[in-house]
Description:
four-stranded mixed sheet
Amino acid sequence: MLSELCKLSFEQIKDIASKTIGQSQNVKWCLYRKFRSTSSNFHKVIKSVKNNRYPNSLYKGLLGKYFVEGVKSIEWGKTHENIAIEEFEKANNCNVTKTGIWLHESGFLGASPDGLLFDDNSSYCIEVKCLYRFRNEDLKINLSNSNDYIINFDTNKNDFVLNSNHQYYDQIQGQMHMTKMSSAILIMWTT
């Protein structure tokens, strides 16, 4: 049976994550990611199941049929992700470990966190979002009581709060599940 042939041990999963560092720049990462449902698509799948609607765009996304090279926001993220991590490391006196794709034991699911952080008692998935949409703007103003982004700024609490209905939330939950980590750090970077 196919499901039995695809099963992976946690040692195999860690080995694959190690061999696929560099993500889209690594041929092995591209090969291991192909034909798997990855955490970047989890929100679309969850939403489709809840609504009992499965549009063609869902299948195109799951099969990697969308061409994203040249999309400004994606290029912006690729260009600035390492800068965001470096600034985070300096600000928090820590070292983020690069990683590749983490597969589920079933072999059918995957997730590619932007890094991992290990400190004395905890470990964290790191996800970086370089905010092209807000690249030259004040986040507090633009995210004040907004519901359409991964975080919003709650003026009553005078703090940023997480939006658990956003697609990035499901992506990060998937990353935590695949890596077996119970915590994550979301780095929001802008100019």
